[in-house]
Amino acid sequence: MAAPSPALLDSLAALLGPKGFTRDCDAMTPWLTDWRGRFHGRAAALIAPATREEVAQAVRLCASGGVPLVPQGGNTSMVGGATPDASGHALILSLRRMNRIRSLDPEANLAVCEAGVVLANLHEAAQAAGRRFPLSLAAKGSATVGGLVSTNAGGTQVLRFGNMRRLVQGIEAVLPDGSLFDGLTALRKDNRGYDLTQLMIGAEGTLGIVTAASLKLVPAIGSRVVAWVGLATPVAALALLRQLEDRMGGAVESFELVPQGALDLVLAHIPGTRPPLARRHEWHALVEAAAPVGAPSPEPALVEALGAGELVEDAVIAASEAQADAFWRLRESIAEAEKQDGPAVKHDISVAVPDMPGFLVEAAAAVERDFPGVRVNAFGHLGDGNIHFNVRAPAGTDAGWIEGAGAEVSHRVYDLVTAAGGSISAEHGIGQMKLGEFARLGGAARLAALRAIKGALDPAGIMNPGKLVPPPPLAENRRLS
Amino acid sequence: MAAPSPALLDSLAALLGPKGFTRDCDAMTPWLTDWRGRFHGRAAALIAPATREEVAQAVRLCASGGVPLVPQGGNTSMVGGATPDASGHALILSLRRMNRIRSLDPEANLAVCEAGVVLANLHEAAQAAGRRFPLSLAAKGSATVGGLVSTNAGGTQVLRFGNMRRLVQGIEAVLPDGSLFDGLTALRKDNRGYDLTQLMIGAEGTLGIVTAASLKLVPAIGSRVVAWVGLATPVAALALLRQLEDRMGGAVESFELVPQGALDLVLAHIPGTRPPLARRHEWHALVEAAAPVGAPSPEPALVEALGAGELVEDAVIAASEAQADAFWRLRESIAEAEKQDGPAVKHDISVAVPDMPGFLVEAAAAVERDFPGVRVNAFGHLGDGNIHFNVRAPAGTDAGWIEGAGAEVSHRVYDLVTAAGGSISAEHGIGQMKLGEFARLGGAARLAALRAIKGALDPAGIMNPGKLVPPPPLAENRRLS
User: Could you say which residues form the signal peptide (chains A, B) (predicted)?
Assistant: First the structure.
């Protein structure tokens, strides 16, 4: 890979015009650091094509010069997936100008969106048509369709509707040689070989640039009900989830597990919060159920289902939208409260759903035994087998702990997850942040296959280099050179 | 690729034992021809490993000798996908001995099956546990899990539950270098790079050997209701399907479109059949809805939904299981009746669901105009956008028509499908039968990507050669040599 030549930069500037090409430092700076401020890079220019044809031409120019491209949407990666390296050779390819919803068909339950469409804007457009795009996450005001596709994003509604992989019906993409793959037509059945749409989902821009996607819509929400539930164990929590699903069909949209310790952190650090239940419980669940417009409210069914059996220690149904929002605020403030309390290392991990209750308890015990003083704070999407397994530093430790002992804690957590057959990245991806752990734990067959696919589709290695695909081990490097 | 050396054959015989290795002509013959009798091949031996380790060792031996392998399950491919070529160099690798259901967990709704498990046996095991594997097709007594995964099989319940791609939670596979990819753990969230499980689904054995799969189960059926409906147009049929889905949620499992002409063929050629409705209708729909054990029967809701609005010209609900079976027999006898009536060319095609009613009418008119005397007989899975677009020869034509004028008709049909953004293979795959049409119409970007992936993961080209991935055009071949 090479720095772009002046001639190449001139060609790109001519192709894309002043709105689509800049080397201005002030204009580029915000896009050279990830939003959490942990990764910093440099770039030779920022390009922002307005059409797929401009993307294709820009990619062809860069391919001919061996110049690396870092695709970027809302720049909300959790793993440094959209930040260039320090060489300054790369171009940032922003999709933000391709922000058109090409079509939105409520009859067919389908929206065709360009890569730069911001998630919140898609939500609004769907709502206006009596429909809903059933994926949401905290960064919805910035995150774009292209980034959501390329990271196989999840969020709080995965339990019912699945992650992006389930919601994407087709994509349009520019491949690393500049050719256009048109897979936008939403075919429910298509057996013409390897599924390139599925291959590009979650590829983090390392196999090409997603320029548009056909996305599945569902009926708009007519009514919702939110409950806060006190429970004795994670086993009881999962049993409750199964009971709710059996009795309420697909109405349960969210089921978030919260330990008492996490709730205590929120109550201690976040102003205006109060405990939802009168007594303390070892574990809690935040449950949301929804029904489409015209259908009866899910509230009576939820009340009845929560009352059945012996699983629930205590429960309260939000009496208003304001109280429902307050319950959600408790859940969504855990990360902020934890941060205010002191240093912690965070792990976005998954295991098979039935294994999660046992894993939670046993892995927490193992980590707290091996690293005296640390406190595990594990919470999140129990029904997806996806927990934020955070480990807080011993009381009084300063932030330097994260890079030192914290890194050893992370090794141990990822070892435990791998031994349980789980994933070291449930929803955030690998990016540059998890590249080392992925190389260590990804498994020889998987890593070799990923490298082979990357090498085949992007032989010059220009697409988002240094992300997702670990370089071969040193010995192999030597043999190749 | 090379014929296996005597030493290699000896090694395989020693590895696999007499149950796992044969060169006996009588033993091999049934597996050298596809079940429809259109493709014939030769093989140097038939091997049948009993474990994934034996598969891995056999693949390593063949890789070292550059010997091609043709994986085979129930040998029920519709496109010659499991039949070796005429060279006699290949080994047939049968998965039939790996027929164990490793686990079946009704709580987790998950079955882990080895590749050789026959679909009907999985149905029985799930039923015994109060669950159901919601994919079925005519060949269920022979088709195996490995073949169903490798062809991304569909069937009659795709409308509600999707095809194999939706039902496979993870796979275990031996890659072309003999390494084992263990992706069996059913993780609902896993963002560790390119999804190799999705890549292997529908790869027709060209990227490795699927040895086991984790499969999703659903609650067993408690009650079902089957209706036969008379309709004026395909537009009315699709509108009726949407109406049923809106009013009955997920209860509608099948919605098969049948033109009057197809029903006439069945009534003329299949003994014991009778028309379900008193009068003739241009189009018909066979509808099945189902409810799980313990839930109310879907019959009242179906009766009410069929009665609403003006779409339905006439309808009858099956009064007994025998009558329900008789309705299904009408649908399932269309292919046989058509065959008895005379020669026809068949096309397993799809377009976007909302486009199918228009496509059906316009493509039929175009083909009947361009090829005087032919009669389009198009029927099938309207709700999936997947129709068997068959074209019957002019009356009195002999079977030679299929290879002559029939081939021109097929070109025209595939051209029309491609122009409509559809697929020339909705559910049967490419195999060897559709390789030429796929090369002609697959599109440069898609074909180049498929070839690159195939070359990267199977550089020696030993995995099911001559299937699915069209060879590069002649000019490119010359450059390479």
Answer: none
